[in-house]
From TrEMBL, chain A:
Residues 299-428 form the Pre-mRNA-splicing factor SYF1 central HAT repeats domain. Pfam families: HAT_Syf1_CNRKL1_C, HAT_Syf1_CNRKL1_N, HAT_Syf1_M. It is found in: Nucleus. Residues 20-156 form the Pre-mRNA-splicing factor Syf1-like N-terminal HAT-repeats domain. Belongs to the crooked-neck family. Keywords: mRNA processing, mRNA splicing, Nucleus, Repeat, Spliceosome. This is Pre-mRNA-splicing factor SYF1. The keyword Nucleotide-binding does not apply. GO terms for biological process: generation of catalytic spliceosome for first transesterification step. InterPro entries: HAT (IPR003107), HAT_Syf1-like_N (IPR055433), HAT_Syf1_central (IPR056350), HAT_Syf1_CNRKL1_C (IPR055430), Syf1-like (IPR045075), TPR-like_helical_dom_sf (IPR011990). PANTHER family: PRE-MRNA SPLICING FACTOR, PRE-MRNA-SPLICING FACTOR SYF1.
UniProtKB/TrEMBL annotation, chain B:
The keyword Acetylation does not apply. Belongs to the 2H phosphoesterase superfamily. USB1 family. The lineage of its organism: Eukaryota, Fungi, Dikarya, Ascomycota, Saccharomycotina. It comes from Saccharomyces mikatae IFO 1815. Its EC number is 3.1.4.-. This is U6 snRNA phosphodiesterase. It is found in: Nucleus. Keywords: Hydrolase, Lyase, Nuclease, Nucleus. Residues 1-22 are annotated as: Disordered.
């Protein structure tokens, strides 16, 4: 009505020309014709009428079409394009529009809200939201809420979070400062200090909290948790508490709320914070207890929160107790580090704070001095015991790790403290769960050593005797104990006591094999005591002790001497003997004039070892057996030993060149039978087990000896056999020697034939030495003809005996590792050697 | 004359090391010498009882050697008062053993070959001190672990119900021989004073009897050591011949009387008892009196 009156009042001023009159006439005549209104407005805008005149016309237009949002929109749009925009006017237009219009308000609502948000006008935003929720259909509500929420999160909540007057921001503040703030708060609460910490009341965001409260009523289920989390950021604890409680479990009996598993940890924790801020201490502590039960994995975080809560309440003793208890419960180093660091900081800050206050003020000095002393002592203790605490963690992780206990012992200063740790370790360690063989036994040894080194030998013995009752899964533990004990007894009481300790371990049961089998298959359930008799380490130490104290002239009437023999024999029977022990045993017997018995040792033990070791032992045995200083065995006996050695070793493919040579030398020396000596060398040369280089050496020795002692016929036979059985490449050298031998005997034709034979064994390019010899031979013994023949043969062989690797490759399609082949196309005039064909046709010539 | 059954558990039967009397004496002397030395160093704590109790019994190797590990398995226990003699008492005990042998030797009809070697039970052949004990039961075999648990639990209850409190037990200084004929073993023991039997020990008979009964052990009375037979074995002679055993059997009473007449070994041993021990698996459970 006001606008209408205004229109009537201003009509004379605004109607200026005929066109205006015509438009006025037209709208009077057909007021419902929107087109006329629009054309009228357009005319005025083109005419450049002042804003007040156009606004006057828009007002009349809107009055005419009060419920038409498009006209309102047009008006608002025009208004926003003015040079001077008055937002209050626009807001008013939006409100008038939405108050008048019922339908098609979507765009207007959203625009209104958008403008309100743009202007950061909290009242307008709420107004726009309210109107929008009334005017818009349900489907559009979420869009409206989203805009508001977005603004709330982006613009409003950060203002609250960054407000410097706000209470501490735990995420951003330095922890030392935080503890200090909490101390101020807490100690003010208990009356140690008088002033209020900040003097400014904490602020909260009521605007946001109330909006969120409304939205939570209608928000979709899946967004509830997110909204609750945003709500918590408003810090409007009085509002937050009842809202959160709708989602929590209620204990009707105790009339308290408990954490809900349907909420996340963070949301439950938000409620905890609310309880703390509202000073609902009983509820806080109960809720915290339940949180600890429900979220065991977050216990460190919760513990530190509770600690901070205690500080903020001035309950410093409770905080210390909590941190101390928690420190002793940590199961990993990360948790330990977090709690330890905070504990240390707490004690440090407490000490500093109380000290400062005591210096400046006089508040119950005596009581607080005591507290200061306590905090300083705890701080110092925390620093001093850091390694012990760390060790505690390691032990809580695995109390059966002996190394951790050893480390703990090393952290103790006095022997008495070390004793306590050792006994604690023994009580806590389950021997079957120890993973490092020997470590638990070592621990017992060291425990006993503490007493032993202070001359409390009887106690040490009692401990070690006790340690032998532990069902160790590993023999190494018992070895450690027995050996350590014996060493100690040796140094203190002498060899007899040391030996008797070791004998306690080495008593062989009736059925050792059965026990060994049971132990090996027992999966740690059979104690190592069952097989300790089988410990090579203990046997070695036992024998070492005995040998060290055995008189040089001892014989079978001597107790120690007999014990040594029995020990060695037991070691052999148990098949624990090593090659070194065989040597030692044999040497021991030899030193005590029991050489023949030492032979039995060799014979008994050699088969127990692999062939390579057997060879070494046979060599040693033969050396002893053939040594005139040690023994005077009959030739038959020595031959028997050699034959046995060769039989045993050759059957295992061992190269026995040295044995053949020694045997041959011995035969010649003992019996003077050169033929037999050469025959032994020949046996070695043709033995399949002898390596090629050894065979060459044996053939060389064999032929050379035959040449010098048995005459040409035997030498010829040997040469022929040698050339036939050796590979071509190796036979050539013997061919040259054979030829030289024949020519020295004046057998020129035979010598030439031999060279001819040798020439065919290899291609001339690889047979240079022979051809050089052949040439010298012909120059010395031949004539023109024979020389020509030689050259002719060389030429033929040169062309025929080429290794055609190219054709081989082509035939195979690729390059393979194949046996050497020679082209024998024109071999009709060269008789192929039977020897080269028969001996090792697949020989691979590696002329390195 | 006292006879003890084959399953008599009052000593470690695995100690078969044969040493001459002189050697044993020397060994004890050595150990005592060490103990005298030890007396000077007081900074190290004694070995805790818990450590000794945890590994009380040596693994039974015969079990693995002779029979299948899973056949014929029983749950064993054994009830006794444990006593860890001090070095001074160990010396006294050694003295008693020596005097007994001395008296024995003085008998006209005895020759050296009939005197077996007595190994002291309070020190091992390796010179380690060992605890002694007064057996209250013979070796107990339970068919199930639960039965044994019941037994130990009932001992606990019985001690509480009878309000047993610590007491001092008097030990006779005159040794007696206790013969295990089946095991060919002789034990030299010190009997518990008869006065104590009546005053302190009779409730234990009841407690143990009830515990055995509740754990459903048949003929349990036979498993409880008679009050008049209670003793502490201090030495053992293993593998004694039948002839020797018979000879000792005849001499036992005479020897006691002779020693009494000679007024030797008048050293009155007293044992302060504040707990009862029950073996369970490898460890010994010490049940203290309230």
């Amino acid at each position: 009505m006001d606008s209408m009156n205004k229109a009537t009042v201003n009509i004379d001023e605004n109607i200026r020309n005929d066109a205006d009159v015509a438009f006025e006439y037209e709208i009077q005549k057909t007021p419902q014709n929107i087109l006329t209104w629009k054309r009228y407005l357009e005319y005025w805008k083109e005419e450049g009428r002042v804003d007040e005149q156009i606004r006057w016309l828009y007002e009349r237009f809107c009055s005419q079409f009060l419920t038409d949002t498009s006209i309102w929109e047009d008006y608002i749009r025009w208004e926003t394009t003015r040079e001077v925009v008055k937002t209050s006017r626009i807001f008013s237009l939006f409100q008038r529009c939405l108050n008048s219009c019922v339908h098609d308000c979507d765009r207007v609502c959203l625009s209104y809200l958008e403008l309100a948000i743009e202007q950061h006008d909290l009242t307008m935003i709420r107004h726009a939201l309210d109107l929008s929720l009334i005017r818009l259909e349900g489907g559009m509500h979420s869009k409206v809420w989203e805009s508001v929420l977005h603004f709330l999160e982006e613009k409003v909540l950060p203002l609250t979070q960054l407000d410097s007057t706000q209470e501490y921001d735990e995420e951003n503040i330095d922890e030392a400062d935080l503890v200090n703030i909490l101390l101020v708060k807490g100690l003010a609460k208990v009356g140690f200090i008088s002033e209020e910490p900040s003097g400014i009341e904490s602020r909260c965001d009521i605007w946001s909290s109330q909006l969120l409260e409304r939205y939570l009523r209608v928000a979709p289920q899946q967004r509830q948790h997110e909204l609750l989390n945003i709500l918590a950021k408003t810090r409007d604890n009085a509002t937050i508490k009842p809202i959160y409680e709708k989602y929590l479990m209620r204990d009707e009996k105790r009339e308290i709320y408990l954490p809900s598993s349907k909420l996340t940890f963070a949301l439950n924790f938000n409620y905890l914070i609310v309880l703390e801020k509202l000073d609902l201490d009983n509820q806080y502590e109960e809720f915290m207890n339940q949180m600890n039960v429900m979220y065991a994995e977050n216990w460190v975080f919760l513990t530190l929160s509770l600690a901070k809560y205690y500080i903020s309440r001035g309950r410093l003793d409770s905080c210390g107790d909590l941190l101390d208890k928690s420190l002793r419960q940590t199961l990993n180093f990360s948790d330990f580090d977090r709690i330890y660091s905070f504990y240390l900081l707490f004690e440090q800050q407490c000490s500093q704070f109380i000290l400062e206050k005591l210096e400046n003020e006089l508040f119950d000095q005596r009581n607080w001095t005591k507290k200061l002393e306590h905090h300083m002592a705890t701080f110092e203790s925390l620093i001093n015991l850091h390694d012990i605490y760390l060790n505690d963690v390691a032990l809580r992780q695995d109390s059966n790790l002996v190394e951790t206990w050893m480390k703990r012992v090393s952290l103790q200063k006095t022997s008495a403290e070390k004793c306590h740790i050792y006994s604690e370790a023994i009580l806590k360690i389950d021997p079957r769960k120890v993973t490092t063989p020997g470590s638990f036994g070592r621990l017992w040894c060291l425990y006993g050593d503490l007493y032993w080194n202070t001359n409390a030998t009887s106690t040490a013995r009692e401990l070690w005797a006790q340690s032998l009752k532990v069902p160790y899964p590993y023999i190494k533990d018992l070895e450690e104990i027995y050996l350590n004990w014996a060493e100690r007894e040796l140094s203190k009481e002498g060899v007899e006591r040391a030996v008797s300790v070791l004998e306690d371990a080495l008593s062989i049961p009736m059925n050792p094999d059965a026990l060994l089998e049971k132990f090996n298959n027992g999966q740690k359930k059979v104690p190592a005591q069952t097989v300790v008799f089988n410990s090579l380490r203990i046997w070695c130490k036992y024998i070492d002790f005995l040998e060290a104290f055995c008189p040089k002239d001892a014989n079978s009437s001597n107790k120690i001497y007999n014990k040594i023999k029995t020990a060695y024999n037991n070691v052999i029977d148990l098949r624990l003997i090593t090659p070194a022990m065989v040597e030692n045993f044999a040497l021991f017997l030899q030193n005590h004039h029991e050489v023949v018995e030492s032979f039995q040792v060799y014979e008994k033990t050699i088969p127990l070892f692999p062939p390579e070791i057997q060879y070494e032992l046979w060599i040693e045995y033969l050396e002893v057996a053939t040594s005139p200083k040690l023994t005077l065995l009959s030739p038959e006996h020595i031959r028997f030993i050699f034959e046995k050695a060769l039989e045993s070793l050759c059957s295992h493919g061992i190269d026995c060149k040295n044995i053949f040579i020694a045997y041959s030398a011995l035969e010649e020396k003992v019996s003077g039978l050169v033929g037999k000596s050469i025959e032994i060398l020949h046996r070695g040369a043709v033995s399949v087990s002898t390596h090629l280089e050894s065979r060459l050496q044996l053939w060389g020795m064999c032929i050379s000896r035959a040449q010098s002692t048995l005459g040409p016929s035997i030498a010829r036979e040997l040469y022929q056999e040698c050339i036939q059985v050796l590979p071509n490449s190796k036979a050539v050298a013997f061919v040259i020697e054979f030829s030289d031998f024949e020519s020295s005997m004046g057998e020129i034709i035979r010598a030439r034939e031999i060279l001819t034979y040798g020439a065919k064994l290899l291609p001339p390019s690889r047979n240079t030495e022979l051809w050089n010899n052949f040439e010298v031979f012909e120059l010395k013994h031949g004539d023109k003809e024979t020389y020509k023949e030689m050259l002719k043969m060389k030429k033929i062989l040169d062309s025929d005996m080429v290794i055609d690797s190219e054709s081989v490759s082509q035939r195979e399609g690729n390059i393979n590792f194949v046996a050497a082949t020679t082209n024998r196309v024109n071999s009709h005039d060269i008789t192929p050697s039977n020897a080269t064909q028969s001996v090792n046709p697949d020989e691979i010539e590696l002329d390195i | 004359m006292e006879f003890i059954s084959i399953d008599y558990s009052s000593s470690d039967g695995s100690d078969t090391e044969s040493e001459s009397v002189d050697e044993v004496e020397a060994q004890v002397e050595n150990a005592e010498k060490s103990n005298i030395e030890e007396a000077g160093c007081t900074d190290l704590p004694a070995i805790p009882d818990s450590v000794i109790s945890k590994y009380h019994i040596t693994p039974n190797l015969q079990k693995y050697e002779l029979q299948d590990m899973h056949i014929g398995r029983f749950w064993r226990s054994f009830t006794y008062f444990e006593w860890r003699p001090t070095p001074a008492i160990r010396r006294q005990l050694q003295q008693i053993i020596c005097e007994y042998k001395e008296t024995f030797m003085k008998q006209e009809y005895t020759n050296l070959s009939q005197l077996p070697d007595f190994d002291p039970l309070f020190i091992s052949h390796l010179g380690a001190p060992k605890p002694l004990h007064i057996s209250l039961t013979r070796s107990l075999l339970f068919e199930t672990e639960e039965q044994r648990q019941t037994f130990i639990h009932e001992i606990h209850n019985g001690l509480q119900n009878h309000r047993i409190s610590p007491f001092t037990l008097e030990i006779c200084p005159y040794p007696k021989l206790y013969i295990s004929e089946q095991a060919n073993t002789l034990y030299l023991g010190l009997p518990v004073s008869g006065r104590c039997n009546r005053t302190h020990l009779s409730p234990f008979q009841t407690i143990i009897g009830e515990a055995l009964q509740k754990s459903r052990i048949p003929d349990y009375q036979e498993l409880i050591v008679n009050l008049h037979s209670l003793h502490i074995s201090i030495a053992v002679a293993s593998k004694a011949s039948q002839v020797t055993l018979k000879r000792y059997q005849q001499l036992n009473e005479t020897m006691g009387a002779l020693m009494l007449l000679n007024n030797k070994s008048a050293y009155q041993l007293e044992l302060f008892v504040n707990s009862i021990n029950c073996d369970e698996n490898r460890h010994s459970i010490k049940i203290p009196f309230t």
